[in-house]
Write a structure and sequence with these properties.
Number of strands: 15
Strand content: 15-25%
Structural class: alpha/beta
Order of helices and strands: HEEEHEHEHEHEHEEEHEEEHEEH
CATH architecture: Alpha-Beta Barrel
Number of domains: 1
CATH class: Alpha Beta
Shape: globular
CATH topology: TIM Barrel
Number of helices: 9
């Protein structure tokens, strides 16, 4: 048992830390929750969700960063809803930050978005499909904010250290695992990738709900199986991630995106209490 514990320690040493607003992620600290609805669908929904999650996280002593996207640009069908758009979305994210008092994270899809987005959020996310796009990574990093780079479903875990070196800004880099393509319409999580990516010295986050997607699995949209969120999250904590990324929605079945994988807000406290006890 002692030898096994030593092996685990050698595989997953504490990373450097990155500051997102007033939350520190990495550095051997307690794990951080990054959560919120996949897309901003309305101001009231975003604010209410953020308030409820912030209250639960505070009660459970879990550091919390709110996440939501103003534009779901990565869509299989041109008929899919994309959200409220950049201008309205950034106003809503700024309200969440100011009124709820939590750090805010959102993603961009072009270099030109980086600067205006940086005025309203605390961390800029690079989507998995765009993680190799040098101009986007450099533009986001140049804002001085921390950036969260999601690992492409098509990449090996060791590739992420190479991509992270493109970020020359002072804000720091977080790497997020979100599953690997496993044939058509499916993803799998190889948990060996967590300690491999951690060799970079950067904080590592597990995107629990996106890892449960079945890309294109419903014909013109993605499917998935959100019931396995506790399984993925528990395994990720066991191998020593610095944070959990969980998309949480008040009514997943009627969400405009990822309706099969978002965790219901009504069960958020139940899930987080379970994970806190691991």
């Amino acid at each position: 048992m002692i030898a096994l514990m030593q092996t685990m320690i050698e595989l997953r040493k504490p990373s450097g830390e990155v500051r997102v607003g007033d939350v520190f992620i990495g550095g051997g600290r307690k794990w951080v929750l990054i959560a919120g609805p996949c897309a901003i669908e309305a101001e009231e929904m975003a604010l209410n969700t953020a308030h409820i999650l912030a209250e639960i996280a505070d009660k459970l002593d879990i550091p919390f960063i709110f996440k939501a996207s103003y534009d779901k640009a990565n869509r299989l069908s041109g008929d899919s809803q994309r959200g409220v758009g950049r201008d309205v979305g950034l106003e809503i994210l700024a309200k969440v930050r100011d009124e709820v008092g939590v750090p805010v994270l959102t993603d961009i899809h072009s270099p030109e978005e980086a600067q205006p987005v940086s005025q309203c959020v605390d961390c800029i996310q690079i989507p998995a499909f765009l993680c190799r796009q040098t101009d986007i990574v450099e533009a986001a990093s140049a804002t001085g904010l921390p950036i969260n780079i999601k690992k492409g479903q098509f990449l090996a875990p060791e590739d992420m250290a190479v991509i992270a070196r493109k970020a020359k800004g002072d804000g720091g880099v977080i790497i997020t695992e979100r599953g690997t393509s496993f044939g058509y319409h499916n993803l799998v999580v190889d948990f060996r990738g967590i300690p491999i990516m951690a060799e970079s010295g950067l904080p590592i986050v597990m995107d629990v709900t996106h890892s449960l997607q079945r890309p294109g699995g419903e014909g013109s949209s993605s499917g998935g199986d959100g019931r396995f969120a506790p399984t993925i999250a528990t395994a990720a904590l066991a191998v020593g991630v610095d944070g959990l990324f969980i998309e949480i929605h008040p009514d997943p079945e009627n969400a405009i995106s990822d309706r099969k994988t978002q965790w219901p807000l009504s069960r958020a406290q139940e899930l987080l209490e379970f994970l806190k006890a691991r």
